[in-house]
Write a structure and sequence with these properties.
The protein is mainly α and 302 residues long. The protein contains 9 helices and 4 strands. The protein has one domain. It has helices spanning 4-36, 41-70, 82-95, 128-133, 136-151, 154-177, 189-233, 236-249, 287-296, and strands spanning 72-73, 101-105, 112-116, 122-127. A 4-stranded mixed beta sheet has the order 1-2-4-3, with helices on both faces.
């Protein structure tokens, strides 16, 4: 049976594989853009440069941007919010984690998020709605879930996924809106036609593929964080009850909800009004599936 250390090692390995894979994809997109336009080798060089700049910027500053987009205020001190601060502090002592920065989000929804590049540079934010609606064991379960994202290095993985997906989308949008499509003529008309077809298909599908990878990784990590959080508190029922309340309370989207940062939250910030094909693009597993998984760990019905 896999241990927490196994999951951490897998996340670190997958982070490296992800970087290499996306770098190859970005380079391929740059080459295609250069071959199909007047940019030539400059298209490849520009694509790689953009990818490197965004990856470095996202790695070191993506957490601050995510917190700003979420409308988080802080970091708070123990004197300002002793209830939440001490709960995070106690959970960190139990998990053997350094104390992250703690932020508050002024929103009636029950939600929280974790971000950062590693446990030494991490932040946790919780909504005022979570503090108001959740009982002690329920809020503890939610915070343990978020701290598990930090402990398992999910925060680094998801930050990298976010940055690299945005690089792919930026390149494809730049190509289609730049007005340079078709600027270069191929020496061979048939070869040029094949290149154009392959290039357009790849440029169209790349953002979709990248987003599906992002969503698949996000949903898988939520199940793992639920399990890790329940093990941290030794009380799966607390997290189970929190999810049940979230299913009833979080009906409307959060005002600060953004597609780019939705996967960082404990629960989807877009409310419960999801149906049809939109379910394929959900950043989180359905709440009933998360509850079922926790019940299987030993939670009892309320």
């Amino acid at each position: 049976m896999a241990t927490t250390y196994d999951y951490i090692a897998r996340n670190k390995t997958f982070s490296l594989v992800l970087i290499v894979g996306f770098t190859v994809l970005v380079g391929l997109l740059g080459w295609i853009i250069g071959a199909m336009t007047d940019y030539g080798i400059g298209g490849l060089l520009a694509a790689v440069a953009v990818a490197v700049i965004m990856a470095v910027g996202g790695y070191y500053g993506g957490d601050r941007l995510a917190l700003a987009v979420a409308g988080a205020r802080g970091p708070i001190t123990k004197q300002q919010q002793p209830y939440v601060y001490r709960m995070v502090e106690n959970l960190c002592l139990t998990a053997g984690l350094p104390m992250p920065k703690v932020y508050l989000i002024n929103d009636p929804a029950i939600n929280a998020l974790a971000t950062g590049r590693d446990p030494q540079h991490a932040s946790v934010a919780v909504t005022t709605g979570a503090i108001d609606h959740l009982a002690n064991e329920e809020l503890e379960g939610v915070l343990a879930h978020e701290l598990s994202h930090i402990q398992n290095y999910d925060v680094r993985l998801m930050m990298l996924v976010l940055v690299l997906v945005n690089v792919v989308m930026l390149l494809t949008r730049w190509f289609f809106y730049s007005g340079h499509f078709g600027g270069r003529r191929s020496d061979s008309r048939s070869a040029g036609s094949v290149l154009a077809i392959v290039g357009i298909v790849l440029l169209v599908l790349s953002p979709l593929i990248a987003q599906l990878v992002q969503l698949a990784v996000s949903r898988r990590r939520e199940f793992l964080a639920d399990a890790s959080g329940a093990l941290l508190t030794r009380f799966p029922e607390g997290l189970t009850r929190a999810l049940e309340k979230i299913g009833r309370v979080n009906q409307a989207p959060m005002p600060t909800a953004r597609e780019a940062t939705a996967h960082l939250y404990f629960d989807t910030p877009f409310g419960r009004k999801v149906s049809g094909l939109s379910k394929l693009f959900m950043t989180h597993p359905p709440i009933n599936e998360r509850i079922s998984a926790l019940r299987a760990m030993g939670g009892q019905s309320a």
